[in-house]
Amino acid sequence: MADKWYTVGKLVNSHGIRGEVKVWPQTDFPEVRFAKGSVLTLVDEEKGAPSINVEVVSARLQKNVYIVKLKGYDNINDIEKFKGWALKVSENDLVELPEDEYYYHQIIGCTVVTDEGEELGKVTDILSPGANDVWVVKGKDGAGRAREVLLPVIDDVLLNVDVAAKVIKVKLLEGLI
């Protein structure tokens, strides 16, 4: 079993009487995760019950949730007990990202340094307000006071992202601090 697991969806309710479920997607790749034949792991995060591997038979988008049919669960009584459970994939099953794209877990916790060698702090959160993401960096200023820097994820700011070393090098534009 893999060490790290990532949530790709949550079972929020049953749908009809034939065992379909409503899944709130929590992935950038729902077309991959909920594709026919995709194998996911059902996990009860609250009770810590044993996890169950399930196979997707079909899925369709309806408003903002996916209606998913899982193999072997053919009526509402079979699936109802899994309401609130998370659908997860192991680290080994993560989708390969294009160059210069990263998973949140790869960025959060990275140390951010300027092109002049000043350490700004660590990335603690990622915001998605619109045109580009914004990385929230928490650290201390020169006087030792806590500070928060909001870094726009744009080419002019990001110089180098080394996820293996957990270090991000940035160029601070006028007005960022």
3D structure, described in words:
- The chain has helices at residues 30-33, 76-79, 104-107; strands spanning 5-15, 20-25, 39-43, 52-62, 65-70, 86-90, 111-114, 119-127, 134-140, 146-152, 158-162, 167-170.
- It is mainly beta and 177 residues long.
- A six-stranded antiparallel beta barrel has the order 1-2-5-4-3-6. Strands 10-9-8-7-12-11 form a six-stranded mixed β-sheet, with no helix packed on it.
- The longest helix has 4 residues, at 30-33.
- The termini are far apart.
Task: Record keyword descriptors for this entry.
6-stranded mixed beta sheet; 45% strand; mainly beta; 177 residues; 12 strands
Number of helices, where a helix is a run of at least 4 consecutive DSSP H or I residues: 3
Widest β-sheet, arrangement of strands: 1-2-5-4-3-6
Structural class: mainly beta
Shape: elongated
Largest sheet: 6 strands, antiparallel, barrel
Terminal Cα separation, in Å? 44 Å
| Oligomeric assembly | single chain
Report the uncertain regions: none
Mean pLDDT, all residues: 89
Helix-strand pattern: EEHEEEHEHEEEEEE
Helicity, as a percent range = under 10%
Radius of gyration: 20 Å
The number of distinct β-strands equals 12
Beta-strand residue fraction: over 45%
